[in-house]
Amino acid sequence: MLWLLIIVLALLTLGLLLHRGEPRGSKPFLESITSVSSSTPTIEIDIDHSQELCPEPDPLKAAHWLVLDTEGVHSIDCSTDEGISPPIALSWQLLSEGGDCILERSFVLDQSGLSPDDLATQIHGITTEQMSRGVQPELVYEALKKDLSQARRLVAHNLRYHLSSIVEDLQRKDLPWNWLYAIEPLCTMELGKQMKFKVGYLGTPLYPELSELYGYLRYGRLGIGVRFKSKTIRDVRLLSGCIRLLIGSCYMPRKAEDSVEQSK
User: Which residues contact 177 (CB under 8 A, 6 or more apart)?
Assistant: First the structure.
């Protein structure tokens, strides 16, 4: 028993020393990732020139998946339920049941009276000037509604956040929003957590970032670099890549409610 007590004390002392050595604002020692290497990326992909991630669309195929991404006016940690940011960019792809790209659309929205904060602009690169040259949101939502009517499953990374962002904007504009819930949903962020490839020190599953999910599915590692011009196009293409890798795998749920709780 004495040797067991010595080992426990040694581990507690090591944890305390490491915790004290962390800079302010860093993640607690017990929350550090230990499952898959997330060190400096040695794999880098170019989202705008990758034949794998931006294949030639085939408009003749039947739609099955609609893959969606939004970018907001505020910088918000969308891995939590705290705060919703009005969308100022919206991108989506229609995919066949096998994951082939049918079409891709991407819009910057002209949200009158809104301006992105500095941190949000650093993340997605969209400025107030670009917004002023954007498309009227009503026209974008009508195009999304039309494409969504062709699909059978709606996919996003943190689906609840993206849907809530769009729904609140539609409600502000006194427009119908129930059509967003007309088809079966799938959240890849929830699915990634269930896959348990990103865990804390005590084995607690963590939500993966979209690039981490793609990196794990494609290369077996979290740390990949991604070059891109448009953040929202980057995300929708990475997400489509994840769907193609997930199709036919044991990770893909048969029913969407297995991976996300739908909230109306």
Answer: 166, 167, 170, 171
Tens of each residue's pLDDT in the chain, 264 residues: 555 455 545 555 544 444 433 332 333 323 333 445 545 557 999 999 998 898 889 999 999 999 999 987 666 655 544 567 788 899 999 999 999 999 999 998 888 776 666 555 556 567 767 767 789 999 999 999 999 999 999 999 999 999 999 999 999 999 999 999 999 999 999 999 999 999 998 999 999 999 999 999 999 998 899 988 888 899 999 999 999 999 988 888 875 444 444 434
Helix, strand and coil percent figures for the chain, each rounded to 5: 40, 15, 45
Distance CA 150, CA 183 (A): 10
pTM for the full predicted model? 0.78
- What's the half-sphere exposure (Cβ side, CA atoms, 13 Å) at 263? 13
Q: Whose structure tokens read 């957590």?
A: 193
